[in-house]
Amino acid sequence: MRHAVLIEDLRVRLNGKEVLKGVSLRVPEGAVTVILGPSGVGKSTLLRTINRLVELNPDASVEGRVEVLGVDAYATDPYKLRRRVGMVFQIPNPLPHLSIYWNVALAAKVCGVAKRKDELNRVVEWALRKAMLWEEVKDRLRDPPTKLSGGQQQRLCLARALAMKPKLLLLDEPTANIDVENTELIERALRDLVREDGTTVLLVTHMPDQALRVGDYVAVMYDGRVVEFGRVGEVAREPTHPFTRKLFSRLA
Amino acid sequence: MSDVVEKLEDAALAVVAGLVTVAALVPYASIIVSTFINGFKAVSAVGLWDFLTSLPPAPGSGGYGGVGPSLAGTLMLTAVSTALGVPLSLLIALLTTEFPRNPFSKLIKGLVKGLLELPTIMAGMVIYTIVVIPMGTPSVLAGALALTVVMLPYVTTYFETYLGSVPRAYREAGYAIGLSRAGVVWRVALPLVKRGVLVGSLIGVSRALGETAPLLFTLGAARYYYPSSITGPGDSISLLIYNFAMMPYPNLQSVAWGAALILLASYLVVSLAIHLCVRGVEA
Amino acid sequence: MRVRGFKSRHDAVFFLTLLAPSTLVISFYVLLIKVLSEYSAPAFQAFGPRLITGAEWDPSRPAYGLLPAILGTIATSAVAIVIALPVAVCVTVFLNEFCPKVMARVLSSVINVMAGMPSIVYGLWGAMVLPDFLKNYVMLPLSRYLGFIPLFSCTPVSGWTLFTAGVLLAVMIVPYVASLTIEAYAQVPAGVREALLSIGARPHLVCRELLKLIAPAVVGAALLGLGRAAGETIAVSLVVGNVNYIPYCLFLPGETVSALIANNFPEASSYPLMINALYAAGVALLALGFVLNVAGLVLMGRWRRLVGNV
């Protein structure tokens, strides 16, 4: 089995504090891996280390081996790296000054997925369909994203990430701030992605039930480290680490 | 998108932005440098103490002189206008922060903000009409009143921001022990904002130092004798600079540079004081 | 919403104690309106619309027309903002995207200090240093090589021109406009920048999109800067040349409304109706500034709502 992301002994310091204390993780290709853990444990930081967004913090220091889609992430051009990795954030962040259409199309253009108008139209429709949003916005593509609800905006952000045709998709607690219906839609979209396009999905969440619904593999994080990894079903049935046990015991 | 083209675009943006920024700094450097150099020449021609105390030379006399009366005028103007303006600004700021939803309060807040847009020369025109004409003479008092009008919005806005930032917890503690609104302000909020009041006063001072237009018709430009009272005419450093800059006599222009140096130095000192006080508050 | 609802008598007394002195502001405005209307009315009555559209300034007849001064205010302010706005944007971009943190803080402080510097210091420098420099190194070359543009079509005789006034105004308002645009840029929510980076945008694209996002704020800042330039009196009157003819070219001396008032007010009582004409000029100045500032504030408000919605 190949790995989309290979992390070995990753240590990350933010603002003087050690957030990741030696994380090792191998993310299998073409499957949904869920990173599960309590708030503040470093899940977001781990995700941002993969697409080098952690560097936005001027006080960040990164040590260890991070290999993303076969290349050393920290030895390559960060912009080129980010164009191969899509990301959906916890709080929906559509670009407010662009239309719904251009929110998606810009991503495709930047990543070189499409250039001409007809190509862009096709990618935008494809991405919005994959994100389960097309039917709701197809008649108002020129509208600003502020006219959408929170859940719709998040699906728009998913479509934006998909328009990049990424081999790896990172999601940082994407459903934490949205309602049940939209959560369901997004989870369905993710499972279809893996099944139909073979995308690797890496999803961060603090909700064990989401891990069970969506995940193929799960990595449990505790105190800045990955303490358990395996197929979701197995880990949930026979957890080895006490924290994992606590997590899944609540779902009797 | 081609890789090289993109990297070039990044570089071009950085270079253009950087060059324009550097070019933009040149005039300001020139202002500071020329004021210091020319001002130093003027002050050292008579010595600092003499420059600060003696009278300016007569036009065409070719001699050197100082800015004594004008400096005294500036100090008097600053003192009077700050004494009038800072308490009034504080009261207005208290009104708008303690009773924010009251229609009077909202009206006054808007009017004060509107003063920011009033061309300063018009403040002078109004004070001229309602103070100078009835008094029959321009005066330090009239000038100070005009300066108060000009400084009011700046100082009031600062106080409003500052008072608004007193943490709710303190106020609620005050109400909890039974203080009335006035009591909370007097015993809880105000003692906390002593430093803010100091900064607000310094802001007022910095405004009073620098304004010229409000003084054009209200002050009188009496620069060859020391002002005897605030009801008589006076002069200010800024007004002196303005008048001497227009004169064709090099010795007067030189005095103007010296006065500008004094003004610039005072402004920088006050700005530094404000900066340090604000830093202290944040810490 | 209770209008007169106070928690107690104490509160009501407190309110009134604060209200009493604060009404001085209202009285000032009342006096302002009264003085302006009373004193300007005779001029409007005597000269009618010619007050605004006429070009003569002849105290002996008397005939007063504000058109050259109004055009001069518009011209100098326009030159100022045409120079100041791109500079402010470049400084914003440099400060936020390419500047090391330490330098950025120093630059920020410099901008703040320069924004509050007494305008007379700008004026003195403008009168002593600027005219010769601009005449020899900017205006003469411009009139020689770009003389086909109508505004540059004359050869400057002295350095005291509308162009010089415009440049001086630009120097004076750049710190103010820059501080507004820097604040707007910095207030863009972090999520927007992260979104742009996550799709692989390089710095020039991030910059372009962020500037597009804050465009209403930039225009608002430009209008506020214009308003400030239009009201500036002292520095301008020292360099604009103070010649009351309609300008057809920037490299000639001209006049602005505020400089007109400053120059003529002292002797105005000797001439019939001059003081009234000057008060009318004040009204014109207020009207101009009012329009510009309202437009600027509306735009800033619109931008704030756009950013606040995400």
Structure described in brief:
The complex is a heterotrimer of chains A (about 250), B (about 280) and C (about 300). By secondary structure, chain A is an alpha/beta fold.
Plain-language structure description:
The complex is a heterotrimer of chains A (about 250), B (about 280) and C (about 300). With about 250 residues, chain A is of the alpha/beta class. Helix content of chain A is about 35%, strand content about 25%. Chain A has 10 helices and 10 strands. The longest helix of chain A is centred in the C-terminal third of the chain and has 18 residues, at about 180-195. The radius of gyration of chain A is 18 Å and the shape is globular. By secondary structure, chain B is mainly α. Chain B has a single domain, classed as MetI-like fold, CATH 1.10.3720.10. Chain C has about 300 residues and is mostly helical. Chain C has 2 domains: about 1-45; about 55-310, MetI-like fold. In chain C, strands 1-2 form a two-stranded antiparallel sheet. In chain C, helix 3 crosses helix 10, helix 7 (about 160-185) packs antiparallel against helix 10 and helix 12 (about 255-265) packs antiparallel against helix 13 (about 275-310).
How would you summarize the topology of this molecule?
The complex is a heterotrimer of chains A (252), B (283) and C (310).
Chain A: E1 3-14, E2 17-28, E3 32-36, H1 43-50, E4 60-68, E5 71-72, H2 78-82, E6 85-88, H3 100-110, H4 117-130, H5 134-137, H6 150-162, E7 168-172, H7 180-197, E8 200-205, H8 208-214, E9 217-222, E10 225-231, H9 232-237, H10 242-249
Parallel strand pairs in A: 3-8, 3-9, 6-7, 7-8
Antiparallel strand pairs in A: 1-2, 1-4, 4-5, 9-10
Helix pairs in contact in A: 3-4, 3-6, 4-6, 6-7
Chain B: H1 3-46, H2 48-53, H3 68-98, H4 103-115, H5 120-135, H6 140-164, H7 168-176, H8 181-192, H9 194-210, H10 237-246, H11 250-282
Helix pairs in contact in B: 1-11, 3-4, 3-6, 3-9, 3-10, 4-6, 5-6, 6-9, 7-8, 9-11, 10-11
Chain C: H1 9-47, H2 50-53, E1 57-58, E2 63-64, H3 67-98, H4 101-116, H5 119-128, H6 130-145, H7 162-186, H8 190-198, H9 203-213, H10 215-231, H11 234-239, H12 257-264, H13 274-308
Antiparallel strand pairs in C: 1-2
